[in-house]
Every structure is written in C-alpha cells, then in structure tokens.
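Quick sanity check, Fe2OG dioxygenase domain-containing protein:
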Amino acid sequence: MTCSKAHANQQAVPVIDLGLPEEEAATQIREACTGSGFFYVTNHGVSQSLVDDTFEQQRELFHLPMAEKMAMLQNENNRGYTPFREETLDPVHQAHGDTKEGFYFGREVAADSPESKKPLHGPNQWPDPQLMPRYREVTWQYYEALYGLGLRLLRLLALSLGLPEAYFAPMFDRPMVTLRPLHYSGEVSDPGAGVFGAGAHTDYGMLTILATDDTPGLQIWTGPDSTSGTAPNSSNGAIGAGREGSGAGDDGTAAACGRWWDVEPIPGTFIINLGDMLERWTNGRYRSTLHRVINTTGRERYSIAFFFEPNFEAEVEVLPVCCGPDEPPRYPPTTAGQHLLDKYAATHAGYHGPVKQGHEKQQQQ
C-alpha cells in the first residue's frame, strides 16, 4: 500500500448536516471522529448575523489601545488578555511564542461564590463599556448560542458511541466552557525557523467549536503521530480543505507518510475538532488530532474558538464501551480540572494560578 492510500481516509474533513436525523448524524460523526478527528457542521442553528456581529466586536476589541488590553491581562482564573507570543504551543520547535494575541472568557462565576475558590473559575474581565458598549451583550449571546450547540454535539457524540444520549450531561452541569477570540498578526510563518501562527498542538478538552474569517491558515497532521508526538516542520502553503499543503511532508521517509493538510474556511459552517479528554475517554478510538496555524498570505486572521470542557471535578476514565479483555485502557484516570491545569501551566507564560487540583486560590479581600 502506498503512503497516499495509507492515509487517504484521514485526508477529508467531512461536512456534516446537523439537520439530519440524529441517528444518521451520529453515524457520520463517528466516522469523522475515527478518521481525521475534524469535521464541519452545517444547519447548526446559530444565526449568521450573530456570527458576523460577534466577529465585528472582536475586531474592535483587538484594535483597542494596548493599555486598555493590558488592563485586562490574563489572571489566575484564566480570564483576560494574552499578548502576542505569550502562548507557546509547541515549545520544542518554536523559536518564540505564537504570532497571535487573544482573550479568554469563561462561564461567569461571581467572585463571592464558593465555586470561585476553584482554579480556573471566577468572573470575566470585560472591556470598558464606554469604549465598547455592545461588546459584552453580543459576545455573551454568541457564548450562549455555542453552548447550546455544544450540548447538541454532546448528545450526538454519546449516540455515536452507543451510549444514552444524556450520558455526558451530568459532567457538563457546571462546565469549564471557554470562549477564546484570537487575532493572528500578518507575520508570515517560517516553520524551518520556528515561527508559527500557532504551534502544532492537540486541544486539551472535550471538543472545540471554531469559527474563522476567510483567511486560510489552519492545518491538520494526518498519518503517523497524528494524535501524539511531533510532526516535521516543513514549509506549507494553504491550498484548500482536505488537500495537501504545498511542500508538506516533502521530507519523504522522515515524515513516515504523514502530511499537513489545509482546513480552509467554508462560509456558514463551524469547524469541530476533538480534544485530548475525549480521546482518553474513548481509549484512543476518537482522535485528538495535531494541528497548527501557518500564515502564508501576510494577512491578519481572526478566529473564535469555543472550548467545551467538562466540570472541573469530572473523572476522565476510559469508557467501558471502549475497552475490554483484548483492549485494556491505554490512559490512566485523571480529572478534567487537573488535565487543564497541567496544560495551561506548560504552555502559557502568563498563567500563574494553582497547578494542582485541590489547591484553592488565594482569595482577594
């Protein structure tokens, strides 16, 4: 079998119509989750006008003076602004941090709530309403719309695994749901020199719902080590969804048949990808796929990631339907909170919160 045939089933990023009967949609999701680990969704129920309005608000947010953004600098609750190059997603191969800036907005937890003592919980930091009078209202409408979409996808994921549709619901009644607007600079990436829009990484949690503008840049690694390890840092172009990036994998046997593939924007869709927690729950059957962002155009790029993560205390242990005498668990049990704390501490220079579950934050008086 040739290399191209060996990973041909991983190249496609399918488009799944959520208007289909749930059983049919769940079947298509299972195929995508065991294939590339990425898929688009249409008929998702989120109005295009809300998406457009939200993007306009994010552009205005990033164009605020630096002093205004720094006043919202990321805090121990993982809420707030992350400057350019603050995050380094692939420390082994990056010469410096990602050429992007971003914000974190999470589920609102009042500062005087007992829940605020947990790591990664607390109130959001919002821009001055005198400068951005509509920002909070529009962004929160979008947050709630995607939260609803996330619950819908949870049901379909459960059905795709042969589980009751509400199986994951108790693990998401107080979830760590995070909205992350991102602004990539126009700096052209140079993988050989360790310069990336976003270094190669897998997402940390359950699933990610991504909206992008019309600027390409997202790439996924297919073939060997698509869910773990590292991939060659060859220079890539962006030429279309499900197609090989120009120059990708040209190092022959060193790439072991792996390829970087472009996931181009498709208007009216969201891009869905799976995170490490779902891979652990499914014993590796569902793929948390390595991906990165490469700037080949010299244009700025905006995207909005919505990370849909379980409750902080949720136990992440291989599902009984995904293991057995001939297929023992490949991952030790952990909790959602500890998994995220480990990841944030490793990749964010600006995160200075607790790094162990059970360690309460110092409360402000």
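Posting the structure with no commentary besides this: The CA atoms of residues 283 and 328 lie 8 Å apart.
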